[in-house]
Each structure stands twice: as C-alpha cells, then as structure tokens.
C-alpha cells in the first residue's frame, strides 16, 4: 500500500504546505496578533519563501526523479539556511552575541528638529531582535522556527535520497 510519502508529489506538497503555513502564521501574528517582526524574523521568512519555491518546483517536476531530487536538495538547503538564521536569532535573544546593525534602533539625524524626530520615530516601525515578544514553554518563535526548519530539512533530504534510482 502506497502512502503519501511514497507518492512523487507527496513530500514536495507537504513541504510546500508547511512553508505556506509558517508564512501564514507569521503574517497572522504580525497583522492580527500585533507582533511586529524584527529584521531577523523577516530573514527567516525569506528562507521559508525560498524553500516554498523549490518545493513547488519539485512538486511540478514529479515526472523526473533527477530534477525532483535536485529540487528537494535545494529545498533542504533553504531550510538549513533557515536553521542558521533562527539559531543566530535565538543567540541574539539570549544575548549570547550581538545582532546585526539592523537589529538596533534606527539612527536619528543629529540636526533633526523635535518635530522631525517625532515623525521619524512614529512612522518607522521597529522591533529589536533581542526582545522575545512571545514564547511557549520558554521557547521563542525563533526557537520553534529552528526546530521546524531542522525537521523540514531532514524530511527534504530524506525524500531526496530516498527517491534515488536504485542500481
């Protein structure tokens, strides 16, 4: 009996749905939950977007096992990049190391008037990377992303090498 994981389009479809679910959750927490993302959160979204694109292409390339395998490897590598970004973000949250320059409050012009400073600060949303706005069981969103990325990378690589032609 064939399972979803045995179907050539099964794993790419699962990976694509996972990416879309993660991106949808991020956008919902931003726009409906009021959790404005920091720059590292945005970078994590890019990794999900790249993985989604590769997974969609792997889904479309189901007829060619070599193309599907290569695209699943690329999907896995996008997830590995996501793991790296998420782990870096967790380190910034835990203050193990400093974040990027964009993680800090925006620089204000020294010659700005009080009115200009007020406009700059009120019209430029900012979320610091070292603040944990939400956590569950002591794990931040970045921590959950690191775990999710690692599992999705493992699934991608498993599917890529499981579908290798047998000689």
Give structural notes:
The protein is mainly alpha-helical and 167 residues long. 63% of the residues lie in helices and 2% in strands. The chain is built from five helices and two strands. The protein has helices at 10-31, 39-60, 65-93, 114-123, 141-162, and strands spanning 135-136, 139-140. A two-stranded antiparallel sheet has the order 1-2. The radius of gyration is 20 Å and the shape is elongated. The model has no long low-confidence stretch (mean pLDDT 85).
Helix content: 55-70%
Q: Can you tell me the overall shape?
A: elongated
Strand content: under 5%
Please mark out the parts with pLDDT under 50 across 5 or more consecutive residues, or reply none: none
Work out the helix count: 5
Strand order of the largest sheet: 1-2
Q: How many angstroms separate the termini?
A: 23 Å
Estimated structural class: mainly alpha
The rounded Rg comes to: 20 Å
Count every beta strand, where a strand is a DSSP E run of 2 or more residues: 2
Q: What is the typical, i.e. mean, pLDDT? A: 85
């Amino acid at each position: 009996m064939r399972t979803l994981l045995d179907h050539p389009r099964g794993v790419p479809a699962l990976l694509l749905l996972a990416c879309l679910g993660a991106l949808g959750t991020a956008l919902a927490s931003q726009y409906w939950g009021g959790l404005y993302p920091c720059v590292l959160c945005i970078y994590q979204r890019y990794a999900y977007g790249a993985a989604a694109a590769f997974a969609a292409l792997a889904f479309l390339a189901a007829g060619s096992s070599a193309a599907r395998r290569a695209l699943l490897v690329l999907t896995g590598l996008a997830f590995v990049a996501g793991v790296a970004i998420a782990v870096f973000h967790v380190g910034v949250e835990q203050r193990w190391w400093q974040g990027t320059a964009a993680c800090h409050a925006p620089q204000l012009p020294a010659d700005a008037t009080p009115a200009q400073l007020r406009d700059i600060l009120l019209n430029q949303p900012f979320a610091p990377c070292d603040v944990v706005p939400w956590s569950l069981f002591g794990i931040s969103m970045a921590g959950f992303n690191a775990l999710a990325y690692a599992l999705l990378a493992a699934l991608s690589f498993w599917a890529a090498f499981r579908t290798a032609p047998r000689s």
